[in-house]
Amino acid sequence: MLYSFTQRQQLQTARQELSHALYQHDAACRVIARLNKEVTAAREALATLKPQAGITTVPQPAVAAEAGGIANQPTEQAGMTDDVIEKLQDKASVLTLERKKRGKTVPEELATHEQLMAFKTLASHPGLHSASVPGILALDVHNSDTSKILTGGNDRNATVFNKDTEQVVAILKGHTKKVTKVIYHPDEDLVITASPDSTIRVWNVPTSQTTLLLRAHEGPVTGLSLHPTGDYVLSTSDQHWAFSDIRSGRLLTKVADQTNIPLTTALIHPDGLIFGTGTANSQVKIWDLQEQKNVANFTGHSGAITTIAFSENGFYLATAADDACIKLWDLRKLKNFKTLQLDEDYQIRDLCFDQSGTYLAVAGTDVR
């Protein structure tokens, strides 16, 4: 009996010790979880602050506004000087000459219908953006080195990814809201991004740093397009479009659409002398860049224009809107020559012609 009593006492003590140890372990787990959370928050805050070092912001007072998150308006427009216009015209002449040399012949290496039908997924890369804030909203591929892919996400970051090595080359942190537009510079290791935080950033990929912060707009940036010279960028927001120099950061011109209808997208024509904008009231407007005037309007869609695309030869324009409809326009005759009506609930996110102008890719609920 005495032995049994001793055993019971020891069991009771062991139980108490075990209960105490479990309680301590639980408390330790909670402390670790809290510290992990704090470390993650601190890292994110640090990453947001880091790119601010070495930024050229135009105008200078906007640097002070950066901390407060207010986008200052570059009030002074440098204007479309004769030098700029001459540069645009020279580039257009060179491009037109190159196009004439290529002629209308379809390149031999162009994929056939059968080859396209056999396309299948080669790889899938889910880890480019935050898993807690999922969603890739924009994508661009480097023009000459097609292994380099640039994406913009809901997590406020842009990511440069090498699809051949399957490595993330750079994570570009600095925007305070999601990244909705991205452009990979065709000739340099430069990236241009835009966001609803009303800023446009130019990044150096090797250093992952912002080299230039453009504040051409007060509202969310809805359209972004690089000029063929590689030196200027067109952007839209609210009822305005702006043309800025990505080397000096100067705002060259900012024009308000007289109808006061918000602009939803923008794209520069392959020649670089005209450009198109989409509006919230279903219109596509063509503008003369040198004269800064609206020269033609295309109507026929219903719902806001979501995306537009020019064919490389510069003759055709494809447009899409919230009406699940794609329209093809002939810019020489200013006429709609084909309409593709997709399923009612199909959401068209992006359009793109291939280099020969034979095929049109549609990205939306699926890829066609």
Automatic annotation (TrEMBL):
<keyword id="KW-0808">Transferase</keyword>
<dbReference type="GO" id="GO:0000974">
    <property type="term" value="C:Prp19 complex"/>
</dbReference>
<dbReference type="InterPro" id="IPR013915">
    <property type="entry name" value="Prp19_cc"/>
</dbReference>
<comment type="function">
    <text>Ubiquitin-protein ligase which is mainly involved pre-mRNA splicing and DNA repair. Required for pre-mRNA splicing as component of the spliceosome.</text>
</comment>
<keyword id="KW-0539">Nucleus</keyword>
<keyword id="KW-0507">mRNA processing</keyword>
<dbReference type="InterPro" id="IPR038959">
    <property type="entry name" value="Prp19"/>
</dbReference>
<feature type="repeat" description="WD">
    <location>
        <begin position="298"/>
        <end position="339"/>
    </location>
</feature>
<feature type="repeat" description="WD">
    <location>
        <begin position="269"/>
        <end position="297"/>
    </location>
</feature>
<protein>
    <recommendedName>
        <fullName>Pre-mRNA-processing factor 19</fullName>
        <ecNumber>2.3.2.27</ecNumber>
    </recommendedName>
</protein>
<dbReference type="InterPro" id="IPR036322">
    <property type="entry name" value="WD40_repeat_dom_sf"/>
</dbReference>
<keyword id="KW-0234">DNA repair</keyword>
<dbReference type="GO" id="GO:0061630">
    <property type="term" value="F:ubiquitin protein ligase activity"/>
</dbReference>
<dbReference type="InterPro" id="IPR001680">
    <property type="entry name" value="WD40_rpt"/>
</dbReference>
<dbReference type="GO" id="GO:0005654">
    <property type="term" value="C:nucleoplasm"/>
</dbReference>
<dbReference type="GO" id="GO:0071006">
    <property type="term" value="C:U2-type catalytic step 1 spliceosome"/>
</dbReference>
<dbReference type="Pfam" id="PF24814">
    <property type="entry name" value="WD40_Prp19"/>
</dbReference>
<dbReference type="InterPro" id="IPR015943">
    <property type="entry name" value="WD40/YVTN_repeat-like_dom_sf"/>
</dbReference>
<dbReference type="GO" id="GO:0000398">
    <property type="term" value="P:mRNA splicing, via spliceosome"/>
</dbReference>
<feature type="domain" description="Prp19 coiled-coil region">
    <location>
        <begin position="1"/>
        <end position="49"/>
    </location>
</feature>
<keyword id="KW-0853">WD repeat</keyword>
<keyword id="KW-0833">Ubl conjugation pathway</keyword>
<dbReference type="Pfam" id="PF08606">
    <property type="entry name" value="Prp19"/>
</dbReference>
<dbReference type="GO" id="GO:0070534">
    <property type="term" value="P:protein K63-linked ubiquitination"/>
</dbReference>
<comment type="pathway">
    <text>Protein modification; protein ubiquitination.</text>
</comment>
<dbReference type="GO" id="GO:0006281">
    <property type="term" value="P:DNA repair"/>
</dbReference>
<keyword id="KW-0677">Repeat</keyword>
<feature type="repeat" description="WD">
    <location>
        <begin position="172"/>
        <end position="213"/>
    </location>
</feature>
<comment type="similarity">
    <text>Belongs to the WD repeat PRP19 family.</text>
</comment>
<dbReference type="GO" id="GO:0005737">
    <property type="term" value="C:cytoplasm"/>
</dbReference>
<dbReference type="InterPro" id="IPR020472">
    <property type="entry name" value="WD40_PAC1"/>
</dbReference>
<keyword id="KW-0747">Spliceosome</keyword>
<dbReference type="InterPro" id="IPR019775">
    <property type="entry name" value="WD40_repeat_CS"/>
</dbReference>
<comment type="subunit">
    <text>Homotetramer.</text>
</comment>
<keyword id="KW-0508">mRNA splicing</keyword>
<keyword id="KW-0227">DNA damage</keyword>
